[in-house]
Design brief:
By secondary structure, the protein is an alpha/beta fold. The protein has helices at about 25-30, 45-50, 55-65, 85-90, 95-100, 110-115, 160-165, 190-200, and strands at about 5, 15-20, 35-40, 70-75, 100-105, 120-125, 125-135, 140-145. The model is unreliable at about 5-10 (pLDDT under 50).
């Protein structure tokens, strides 16, 4: 997904798709029988997380070449999930045509965008983990599970679904200990954070409201959304 900004000035934080590289064994399996490969990386999210930028693309090229694969070409597109990506890739048309498949080192959004734009088999080299933001150098925290039932207006802007290991919408649980999570003792209990935020805002009464159990099925899949006329 394209990066989104939050905050102002020095507090600007980039919202990214967080990815990790698939195991070498899985990539080898996905490329089994495919000898000619064109590799595509992305200049946004995966460059930041160092999973699909220029260095990683070149490393992948070297690794596959050593295994006897023919790399017909490689590139790092500016934004893989942008519809303009097709125009950028037109410059590599001959090299792409020569390939049996495209090995795409981007988030799932980018893989699907490129797959729709080019009549080529695609192989993802990465797993997309979550939508997150960089909270410290090299540290990325999930900020939204995109559950479709947002309640942060009643929890001080802090999401318990994402930040609670149990996904509790009514908390805290009985395992919290001195403000820490029982599952991860190095992690602050999100319901303690919510309590402190609401207390600071003089809105503690909001914690008395019982939230209905979550519908884990959500909307029927695949999800669709249509704008209604005003």
């Amino acid at each position: 997904m394209p990066p989104m900004r939050s905050g102002k000035g020095d507090d600007i934080e980039m919202i990214r798709s967080i990815t990790q590289k698939k195991s070498e064994e899985e990539i080898d399996r996905l490329l089994n029988g495919l000898g000619r490969i064109f590799i595509i990386g992305c200049g946004t999210c995966v460059t930041l997380t160092r999973t699909g930028g220029e260095p990683e693309v070149l490393e992948m090229k070297e690794n596959l070449s050593e295994k006897g694969k023919m790399i017909t070409g490689h590139t790092v597109v500016p934004v893989a999930c942008d519809n303009l990506t097709r125009e950028f890739l037109d410059d590599f048309g001959e090299q792409i045509d020569q390939a049996d498949t495209l090995l795409i080192m981007t988030c799932a959004f980018g893989v699907q965008t490129i797959a729709k734009q080019l009549r080529k088999m695609v192989v993802p080299a990465l797993d997309t983990l979550f939508v997150g933001k960089e909270t410290a150098f090299g540290m990325f925290d999930e900020i939204c599970t995109q559950c479709g039932t947002c309640i942060i207006g009643e929890t001080g802007g802090i999401c318990p679904v994402t930040n609670c290991h149990k996904g509790l919408v009514n908390g805290p649980c009985g395992g919290t200990n001195h403000g820490k999570c029982e599952i991860d003792v190095a992690k602050d209990c999100v319901w303690t954070l919510i309590y402190n935020r609401l207390k600071e805002l003089d809105r503690l009464d909001a914690m008395r409201k019982y939230q209905k159990p979550r519908n884990h099925q959500g909307e029927p899949k695949p999800g669709k959304f249509k704008l209604t006329s005003a």
